[in-house]
Design goal:
The protein is an alpha/beta fold. Helix content is about 40%, strand content about 10%. The chain has one domain: Arginase, Chain A.
C-alpha cells in the first residue's frame, strides 16, 4: 500500500480573531496553506487534504473539567464582555470573543482527526495546522490556549494501547502537556524551549523530571536567548533523537511551533528554517507513525515557511529554496519582503553563542545523568 499523508485544513481556521492587538493571528493558517498550494503540495498523490472532525464532550472530559467547559460554552454565546479569572478566561492572553469555544473545538477536532487517520486508517503522517495549544490546563485557559488538543488526542491513543512520544519544539515550554502526564510512563514528554527563567510560562527546567512512575519521562531542554542553529541541532542530536529511538513509541506526536525563529517578535532564540528543517527531516526518517500540530509562530511568513517545510518533508518533496513567484506576489501586497523558503545556517554573535553553548551543554549533561539510565538503560516498563 502506498504511503498516505493527511493535512487537516479548513477555511474556517482564519474566521476567528483574538483581537486586533493580540499577537495570535489566525491569518497564518491561510498563508501557510497558500504557500503549500503554491508549491503544489495540496494536490500530491496519496496526500489527503481534509476538514477537522467533530469533538464531543466525552473526548473533552478525558482531560478537561466539566465546570470549565460549561463556563467556556456560556461565555462563547454571550454578547456581553465576560471574564472568569479562576478559569483564565477574559484576560489579555485568553480573550473571550464570540464563538471562541467553537474555535477551540475546531482545532481540537482537527487534532483528533489527525490521530484517527494515523492510528485507525493507516496514514503514516497527519498534520493539523490549527492545533498545538499546549498551555491549556485541566480547568484553566493559558497562553492563548483554551483546550489542550494534544492531551485529548494522546488520551485517545493511550486508550488504544499506544505508546506515545510527545515532542514539543515550540519556543514556549509545553507546560499543560507535561502536567497531564507528569506521573505516568505511558507518554515520554520532551520539550525544547526558551528558558522559563525569564520567559512564559516560567516552567520547563531540566530537573522537572516527573513523579512516581513518571520520573524520567518528562524531559526538558531549556535554551537561553541567542541559541542558534548549530546549538539547536546539537541538543536534538544528543538528547532528543536517542531518547525517541530508545523509547520506541508506536506514535510520535510533535508540536512544531515556529516561534523559535530569530525574527519572531515574542522570542529571543536565533533559529532559522535550517535547523528547523533538519529536525523535521530527522523525525520523518524515523518512519514512526507521526502526528504534527502547529503551535506558536507570531511572524506570519516564518510560520508559513516552517509549516510548508513540515508538510513537504512528510511527503518526501524536495522544495526549491526560493518562494514561488505567485506567493511572492501575494505577500508583497501585504507588505512582506520575503523571497526565500530556506535559510542558510545561522550562527549567533560569539559572546552570546558561548553563553548559549554553556547552557545547552549543562542541559545535556543533566539529562544524560538523570534520564538516560531510565529510558536508554531500559529501566522502564
Amino acid at each position: 500500500m502506498p504511503t498516505r499523508t493527511a493535512l487537516i485544513y479548513s477555511h474556517e481556521f482564519d474566521q476567528f480573531s483574538y483581537g486586533e492587538s493580540h499577537p495570535f493571528k489566525a491569518q497564518r493558517f491561510r498563508l501557510a496553506f497558500e504557500l503549500m498550494h503554491s508549491y503544489g503540495l495540496t494536490t500530491l498523490p496519496g496526500a489527503l487534504v481534509c476538514e477537522p472532525g467533530a469533538v464531543n464532550d466525552d473526548e473533552l472530559l478525558t482531560f478537561h473539567d466539566a465546570g470549565y467547559l460549561q463556563r467556556m460554552r456560556e461565555f462563547s454565546c454571550s454578547s456581553q464582555p465576560r471574564a472568569d479569572f479562576l478559569y483564565g478566561l477574559g484576560d489579555s492572553e485568553n480573550p473571550v470573543f464570540p464563538g471562541f469555544y467553537d474555535w477551540a473545538c475546531l482545532g481540537t477536532g482537527g487534532t483528533l482527526e489527525a490521530a484517527r487517520l494515523v492510528s485507525e486508517e493507516g496514514y503514516r503522517a497527519a498534520f493539523n495546522l490549527a492545533g498545538g495549544y499546549h498551555h491549556a490546563h485541566k480547568a484553566k485557559a493559558s497562553g492563548f490556549s483554551y483546550l489542550n488538543d494534544a492531551v485529548i488526542a494522546i488520551n485517545r491513543l493511550l486508550s488504544m494501547g499506544k505508546r506515545v512520544v510527545y515532542l514539543d519544539i515550540d519556543a514556549h515550554h509545553g507546560d499543560g502537556v507535561q502536567d497531564a502526564y507528569y506521573d505516568t510512563d505511558s507518554v515520554l514528554v520532551i520539550s525544547m524551549h526558551e528558558s522559563g527563567h525569564y520567559f512564559f510560562p516560567g516552567t520547563g527546567r531540566e530537573l522537572e523530571l516527573g513523579e512516581g512512575r513518571g520520573y524520567g519521562f518528562s524531559v526538558n531542554i531549556p535554551l537561553i536567548a541567542h541559541t542558534d542553529d548549530p546549538l539547536y541541532m546539537k541538543a536534538f542530536d544528543e538528547v532528543v533523537f536517542p531518547l525517541i529511538a530508545a523509547y520506541d513509541p508506536d506514535v510520535i506526536f510533535t508540536q512544531i511551533g515556529a516561534d523559535t525563529f530569530r525574527t519572531d517578535p515574542l522570542t529571543r532564540l536565533e533559529i532559522t528554517t535550517h535547523s528547523y528543517g533538519y529536525i523535521i527531516k530527522k523525525i520523518n526518517a524515523l518512519k514512526i507513525p507521526w502526528i504534527a500540530v502547529g503551535g506558536g509562530g507570531y511572524d506570519l511568513i516564518n510560520t508559513a515557511r516552517a509549516w510548508t517545510i513540515v508538510w513537504g518533508t512528510m511527503n518526501n518533496s524536495k522544495l526549491p529554496a526560493k518562494l514561488p513567484d505567485s506567493f511572492i506576489r501575494l505577500i508583497s501586497t501585504l507588505g512582506y519582503p520575503n523571497r526565500m523558503l530556506l535559510d542558510a545556517m545561522h550562527w549567533a554573535d560569539e559572546v552570546d553563542r558561548h553563553l548559549a553553548l554553556c547552557a545547552v551543554e549543562k542541559s545535556i549533561a543533566t539529562i544524560r545523568r538523570h534520564v538516560f539510565p531510565i529510558i536508554i538503560g531500559g529501566n522502564h516498563s
